[in-house]
Amino acid sequence: MNATDMAARQVMQDLIDCLLAEEFFASAPLRLADAAQWEGGPGRPPAFAALDPQQRIWEWCCDEPEQRFIVAALRPGITQSWEKVPGSPVYLRHGELWHELSPERFMSLVLKALAPRYPDNEKGLALFMEVLRTSVRQTELSLDHRIDTGALLERDNAAFFLAMEQWASLRDRPYHPLAKAKQGLTDEQYRHYQAEFARPVALHWVAVERAVLQYGDGAAPQGESPADYLLSPSQQTELQAEMRRRGIAESHIALPVHPWQFEQVLEAQLGEAFERGDCQRLEFNAASFYATSSLRSMARPGHSADQLKLPMAIHSLGASRYLPAVKMINGSLSEALLRQAREQDEVLSQTLHVCDESKWWAFMPPGATLFDEAPRHLSAMVRSYPSGLLDDPACRLLPMAALGTPLPGSDRHFFDDWLQCRELPVNASSVLVLFRELCHRFLDVNLRMFRLGMLGEVHGQNAVLVWRAGQVQGLLLRDHDSLRLYVPWLKRNGMSDPGYRIKQGHAQTLYHERPEDLLFWLQTLGMQVNLRAIIDTLEQLYGLPAASSWAALREVMEERIAAIGFDDEAREMLHHRLFASPHWPLKLLLRPMVERAGGPGSMPFGKGQVINPFHRIGRVS
């Protein structure tokens, strides 16, 4: 199968599954027919001739006057009641005529049929379709590329880490049909800047007057600059020589800028600051970096504990990827809480690892506020990974997203290396042993944090496993600005409200009124996205039934809740929400994007509900 077909199939799968989970078509039961009894009329496609007894044919009328129907094959799911049969085509049926649908054609029919639901939102619907087209195209570009995954454990830690970041980038956010869309990039820019292509990126540099810079706690105004962490001694000398020639070596600090941001954004957003001399474009651009799975986070070549995060105002997941000072201020407050959590729990002191994100610089001219648009487009953060982990020859840092990302046209997976390291046979039973160990560490860290009143945004991109000599030793967290809190539990554990900076009158997801609301993030991002992607990938590559992995996940969850020192009230709440309740929460992805007219702002957000996956284990084979 070529990359074009693979991309269409992958996006269509996620698109239909997501719409079904979010009850996009209707909250009423779906119109389903038993595959064995369904006739389908003349010209019935052969794809529907060999369905399993559990599978059903779904028909949805997208054009009542013309009697046109969208037809797809569904099967019972674990994380939702029904999901599209993987790899199966989707058709438009009009009388005796059948046409296989692309994701774009499918969604255009759906939105046209439901347009009365969204009056005066033509702009929003058009934007949604534009993002979908971009997602399909850029998914195709990624699937047409082969990343180098040979001899992974023979590489040093930094080289291994970068390879796994490139692997993780291939899928981006699992189950989100628009995740690969990076609007604003041409095909060539996408191939150049996206992590999986492993192409070096030469950064531009801009000198910014010290008086109009805001600093993180790890970056004193008269102290070090980004160059001290990111450039070799000879490169620092070259950069400083240019600044001395310009007469600004003492008055300005050089900030790195992504070349796309440099060319596409700076003049429009900060032209006046350059005219005043507050900012000056420099000729120096000798240093090259490699994109990680988050695109705007860049890794230095070679062995270094320091990486770079930059603003890059492309549009991704419905949001513009700038880097405002307020995000980094909140991230520093969160980091302090995470370090306190390590002191509060003896196990966390050994198993929770935290990146240092206190070194940052942000343009902040006089009179500007933390929530102004322009300043957020010129900033930089140096993210430092724990040197003890990178310097340990037995240790590897493993972004969890890589474990939930199948390689196109390959059965390769890191579990191959893990099984070999542990001298285990390559079979489903051995894979389940390793998956259980992974769940133990992941859930133990998160539940211990939850007991203290906090949870990180532990989707597979932010959560990094610390793998040492065949064992999952701990969990490394990065991108701290999304640490979620339940303040009453913080206080009873000797910690306090960090005082996040939040724009008045705007929705926020950092503070929560109930512990149940905080648990939402572990159930959704942690399990329904991160662990589910790993479960589905292990089923695809090793034949380990998803139901077996979910059963193991439940057993580990019950063990950890019993072992960790929750009080009776908290333990009862966890048992009800995780095991007894017929439903779990769902983080809505597509409905908020469709409903929001206009261009990107912050990431669209909504809450729904789906079936409890632990109730489905025995029903899905």
Automatic annotation (TrEMBL):
GO terms, molecular function: acid-amino acid ligase activity
GO biological process assignments: siderophore biosynthetic process
InterPro entries: Aerobactin_biosyn_IucA/IucC_N (IPR007310), IucA/IucC-like_C (IPR022770), LucA/IucC-like (IPR037455)
Entry superkingdom: Bacteria
Domain Aerobactin siderophore biosynthesis IucA/IucC-like C-terminal: 449-596
Pathway, per record: Siderophore biosynthesis
Domain Aerobactin siderophore biosynthesis IucA/IucC N-terminal: 161-403
Pfam assignment, any one: IucA_IucC
Protein name (record): AcsA protein
High-level lineage: Bacteria, Pseudomonadati, Pseudomonadota, Gammaproteobacteria, Oceanospirillales
